[in-house]
Specification:
By secondary structure, the protein is an alpha+beta fold. About 55% of the residues lie in helices and about 10% in strands. It contains 29 helices and 20 strands. Strands 2-1-4-5-6 form a five-stranded antiparallel sheet, covered by helices on one side. A five-stranded parallel sheet has the order 7-13-14-3-15, sandwiched between helices. A hairpin with a 2-residue loop joins strand 11 (about 510-515) and strand 12. It is elongated.
Amino acid sequence: MRINLIQLSWFRGAADPVSLELDGKSTVVYGLNGSGKSSFVDAVEYLLKDGKIGHLSHEYSGKKQEKAVLNTHKPPAQKGEILIKFKDETELQVQIAQDGNAIITGADAVSMHTWDYPRIVLRQDEVAEFICDTKGGKYSALLPLLGLRQLEVAAENLRKLVKSVEEQAKLKETKFKLKEIAEKRKEIFGTENNGQIRSKIEDLHQMYCGTPPSPKELGSRCKELKSAIDGRISSSSAEHRLHVVLQDVAALKLKEHIGSVRGASAKLTQAIEPFIDERLRILESTGTFVDGLVDQEEVQCPACGRIISVHMFREHVNEERERLGKIIENFEAKKAAVSLLCDTVQSLKTSFKKSDVKSWRDEREEDSLKGNFEYLTSIDTSKLRTSCGEVDIKRIEDMFIPIIGAVASATQNPPPEAQQLSVDKNIVEVGEAVITSIAQADVVERVDALISFIQSLEQGIREKIRQRSTSLLAEISEDIRQMWAILYPEKSIKDIHFYSHEDANKAIDIGLKFYDVEQESPRLTLSEGYRNGLGLCIFLAMAKQEADKDRPMFLDDVVVSLDRNHRGMIADLLENEFGNRQVVIFTHDREWYTELRHQLDNKTWTFKSLLPYEAPKIGIRWSHKTTTFDDARAQLKERPDSAGNDARKIMDVELSFIAERLQIRLPYLRAEKNDKRMAHDFLERIIADGKKCYQIKSGAAYESHNDAIKALDNAHCLVISWANRGSHTFDLVRPEATKLINACEAALEVFKCISCKKAVWFANVEIAECVQCQCSQIRWRSGKG
């Protein structure tokens, strides 16, 4: 699936059709920042991600990114177009309308859709993304490569099934109610078993109903018994009815419930505090996020920052909920405590609505509790359930505890009959709840057993995932170490490896040794440059796993933060590990481009240069040359001094490689001065040696290549007189700069054969210390110097 051509029209920076011709080869593309080189990478990402480009996913790009993917100056009648031709002569074409709707045609539309973007494309901002991702994010990124997606889907479905069972059975709520009933049972019945409670209710049934218990269900007997007790209370004296209600109020554990809410709030606050700084931005981005759900197919989650599709939102939120499980557990505990407090307040409010306590209430209002009862009448327990803060709790405490205190004082010496009615009423109510809870507890036990079984299946699948992934992770880790050793031959950082977390199912991280000290993460000690180098090795190691599919790789400005010493090793890495793969490199680094042009094999690599970008209507343009002198020419109009300075810098780099290839002997300089020689240093020595060493074929014999020496000598004179002046005094006019650029370009061309188009150092010959072009028209005999 090698690519022969990528053609763009009115897509991103392109205007009229512009083609990146690859011919199935690996290619290095140079262009200044803003020249449009990344538009070709955008086109590949657009196809691999269903019409989406990651760095364009934001609120301003439009629902289908139509405001970003199309050239801003596209004529109304034109469409954005992408054309990709493959080496097997199939092709894929995309037409993008003004509204962003795209039509994709071609035999390879489906097959290219199966390409895995993280194994195909690496951009500048993605180099260290994998390293900085979470353990779960690393797991998700590696999952497709591990070939375990189906097992992961099965395990994830089982996890969701557990959640669904819990929700359908209302497990948390039921367990909370059962706990509450158990506490009341202990208070009323102590250690009595179900049979003893049943007997007690049957005795009360005979006492109050006047007949032996009927053979009905015990629940029905409780209902009959409650009606009988309520009837007895209604027929009793006003004083007795008053004391029954007051005893019910006195039994309310308001103070205890207030303490429970405060305790739960304290635990929740303690759990949340570490997240406050990290999550504060969530509140600011929630509005944007919600709007995005309507307008975009992909949105950025305000909780973690990841770009996700809308249909994945629910699943993503569930993952976030699991990650914050302890906080949610504390939150649920607080909610339950608030619910119990609200029930107690509602019971208090209902009790004082009864006519039996009106006279007692009126008397207390005349004393000091008028405001307390007014607040009790006005309080809305439904609102309290959703917004119960410390201010509300303090108000409840200040207003209602005195009421219960007054009730407790009034019920210290109740009439015995009223007291007995109240006790018996509580026994029946709690007994009925206990009897009902038996069936509920049985349901909970069966649900827990089902959940346990499902969880055991999930864990079994996850254990298979862990076992199967271990060997492949070890293989990828070995590739990473080998690539790292090429980029960083020094041994200060070693034993880089993936490892799975024992305490988490979906978690993978990177370990290493930093000066022989074990590190759980590269983020602990590695600098940005080293992290980016490691990110590149990880990408290449994962891409290597798909070598059998022969899919191309695109590297877009991935060496920005790598220093020169390590950047220079990338050519060796690509040649050694990916000599049989198509690799397309985009860079704005002129010096690195020159290095690659000299280091990589011209048989399998091609080199292209973009002209500086001028305007959207003109679009992306190719230079007809592989050198970078067009960068200098672009500055002739406005800054001829800068154009001359650029020409000199290009010569500095180009001639250093040429001198190395021709084995030019230069005077020894100490330390870094060897690497800081300038163009005139190299030209002076190349010209001196070239008079004897550089030869051109004339008939059957060779003679000195005088034309080449003349061109080099001309460039040397202009570099000394004009280029250095442009660098130091900024006093260089446009005609001078133009002549300097042309002379420098001509000087470099003399090292290329006009017949075979190969450099003079293309091949070694049998004669010692001699190199020549492919057709042997020109040669350099270094032994003559």
